[in-house]
Amino acid sequence: MSGEESGSGTATERSVVVRQADGDDLTAVVEVGHRTWPVTYGPIAGDDYVAMGLAKWWTQEATIPAIRAGRVLVAEVDGEIVGMASVGPSEGHLILWKLYVLPSHQRDGLGARLLRAVIDKAQEDGYDELRLSYLAGNDGAGAFYEHFGFRETERESGGSGIPDSVWMARPLRTDEQEERQS
Ligand SMILES: CC(C)(COP(=O)(O)OP(=O)(O)OC[C@H]1O[C@@H](n2cnc3c(N)ncnc32)[C@H](O)[C@@H]1OP(=O)(O)O)[C@@H](O)C(=O)NCCC(=O)NCCS
Question: Which of 7, 136, 140, 169 could be 163's S-S partner, Cβ–Cβ 3.0 to 4.6 Å?
Fold first, then answer.
């Protein structure tokens, strides 16, 4: 990854692309998790949770099948991958399993671009609902998802000192709803 990030709000013209990931993106996609998880979850769930999550969900082995299945999107700024999203089907619904933007690029519209692309594709594919969970205490994520029309459906206990998972859902059916979010 290039080290030169001028941060958000730069005045220079940027090229932003959101696209499906391919095999060449593997290292960069995994890197997004490794750079985002410690700052996001360290303070609310602790270092052991971060280490567990990175070892379980952010390895190349765990990521290759999702990329191969076309279930991973990336956001590129000037050719550098700075965000990713991954989804998977479950009982007729679609679940957003991961949505991460590098800390240096947050609050710059990239999460919104990724989520919009996920929603558009899910609608195209005929899913009726998009579901996700975030960790209780990750208030930024909660606010972000509410902004895009997700509503809490249930809380799942994290167990052994880990915060609860807050499940949310957003219907995918109507055009009016799309317009309200834009
Ligand atoms: C949550 C996340 C994906 C949002 O992506 P982003 O690129 O930072 O968000 P955007 O710039 O697209 O935000 C769009 C809107 O969502 C809302 N929003 C986003 N982040 C927010 C926050 N931290 N607090 C309150 N509202 C927020 C705002 O309304 C924002 O619009 P505004 O910036 O004009 O006010 C990103 O911040 C992130 O990766 N965070 C850490 C990892 C994480 O928590 N991922 C979710 C795991 S479930």
Answer: 136
Residue nearest atom 44 of ligand 1, based on CA coordinates? 141
- Is 94 part of a structural domain of the chain? yes
Longest dimension (CA), the chain: 47
- Greater confidence (150 vs 10) lies with 150
**In the prediction, which pLDDT does 100 show?**
98
Q: Is residue 162 part of a domain?
A: yes
* Domain-embedded: residue 40: yes
The per-residue pLDDT for 124 is 95
Instruction: Assign residue 115 the CATH number of its domain.
Output: 3.40.630.30
Helix (H/G/I), strand (E/B), else coil: 78: coil
Instruction: State pLDDT tens for residues 139-173.
Output: 999 999 999 999 999 999 998 889 999 999 999 97
Q: Supply the residue whose CA is at minimum distance from atom 48 of ligand 1.
A: 134
pTM, whole model, 2 decimals?
0.91
Q: Which atom of ligand 1 is nearest to the CA of 112?
A: 12
Structural domain for 109, as ranges: 16-181
- In ligand 1, the atom with minimum distance to the C-alpha of 37 is 42
18 phi and psi angles, rounded to 5 deg? -115, 125
Residue 82 has a pLDDT of: 98
User: Which two structure tokens, joined as six digits, stand for 29?
Assistant: 């996609």
Number of domains in the chain: 1
Give the distance (Å) from ligand 1 centre to CA of residue 141: 6
The answer to whether residue 149 sits within a structural domain is yes
